């Protein structure tokens, strides 16, 4: 049996009061729509997923283009029923269709599969995924035929609830399954005769029941999975729920997270067992952390790969970088994009790196800037060393070999190369190549005048 998935994502999201389309707002560091596409992609191939776009369509398409899904345009947003009408041609060749909402991001693949099985077992014309949340206000309510039967009479939107129906606690998730032929046969019966003047997909329930078809509903195990994000407050609540789940998942894998409620861990972050994460740490984007690491408080790591046994001390900022096994970083280190820190290397306090590759065991322990630099294994970069990589117009590279000693407070004016085993005297300004095993000292000679200070003091006394 062939299955198409339609994801409704054309709406503006008026209640968010935002310039950004609703489905591109994020929870767990990822757009709402990307979450829904990920859940759908585990059920069908991307080519069988049709995302209905409309408001800022190009922006929405661009944001998820790499997933390989297909797009259907709903030029004017006349309601959820109209969104599916726009996808009619796209889904016509499939036996069945699953309709998802682009603003219901926490939906799990397992729940969709359970719903799909239920739909097939029931042989229903429409199956509605529902939930009973703490507060059903704002959602469409599902009116069942009997108290405990699966069958549904209708879905009634909040604005249209009749007296007595407000107490119905079972909400419509905005997720449905239909046999395509049955859906397409009745889809043009939707009208916009409600207070919003929209074509409501929810009206399909009543239309199908009136046509003698079977409409059923299945409750999701956890209400949070099907909650929508219509306001900033709802988005923040979903974000917190998702982050808490992510933290629980990592802890179940053997990761220790102290005060997980203070940490911000994005949905796709991976961490291996025996790693310890202290309070107020942020792990963002596609960050991967190996086993046995210690990530101390207030560190922010984004899109970076950390190998096993790494120590990252307090308050480091690490972006688009990689760190080798057993390296030690921080406190207060700033690893900007393109930093590749080798195994057992040390990056100490107030060190900034950018597009800098450090070999195994290299050390830059204090107050240093290393930009556009390649630094060999075992090399020691003294306190206050600066790679002068920018001439005001272009960036230039510094290449330092293995086992080099760069004395404190030296400036290395790029482009420059320093050979293996060389020594740079402290306080040098190095502008020309230093061959291997050489000593380079680039500073003015010291002048010492014996007794000068004592003489100055006695002269000052006489003046008084
Ligand atoms: C909808 C349901 C409601 C349900 C709730 C669950 C209807 C009429 N109501 O209400 O019963 O409880 O979802 O979250 O369907 N969209 C389009 N084109 C449009 C309008 C909307 O693609 O013309 C998309 C939106 O981008 C959104 C989804 O459809 O992703 C749902 O629309 P939204 O306006 O949020 O519906 P709700 O009022 O939440
Ligand atoms: Ca919604």
Give a description of the structure.
- The protein folds into 2 domains: 3-226, Spore Coat Polysaccharide Biosynthesis Protein SpsA, Chain A; 244-440, UDP N-Acetylglucosamine Acyltransferase, domain 1, CATH 2.160.10.10.
- By secondary structure, it is an alpha/beta fold.
- Helix content is 20%, strand content 28%.
- It is elongated, with a radius of gyration of 31 Å.
- A hairpin with a 7-residue loop joins strand 8 and strand 9.
- Residues 103, 228, 230 line the site of calcium ion.
Determine Rg (CA atoms, Å): 31 Å
Question: What is the CA-CA span between the terminal residues?
Answer: 104 Å
Number of helices: 9
State the helical fraction. 10-25%
Mean pLDDT: 97
| CATH fold topology of the largest domain | Spore Coat Polysaccharide Biosynthesis Protein SpsA, Chain A
Query: In the residues, how many domains can be counted?
Result: 2
CATH architecture of the largest domain: Alpha-Beta Complex
Structural class: alpha/beta
Shape: elongated
Instruction: Provide the list of bound ligands, each named once.
Output: uridine-diphosphate-N-acetylglucosamine, calcium ion
User: Looking at this structure, what is the CATH superfamily of the largest domain?
Assistant: Spore Coat Polysaccharide Biosynthesis Protein SpsA, Chain A
Unreliable parts: none
Counted beta strands: 39
Give a quick account of the main beta sheet: strands, pairing sense, barrel closure.
14 strands, parallel
Please state roughly what percent of the residues sit in beta strands, choosing from under 5%, 5-15%, 15-25%, 25-35%, 35-45% or over 45%.
25-35%
Query: What is the top-level CATH class of the largest domain?
Result: Alpha Beta
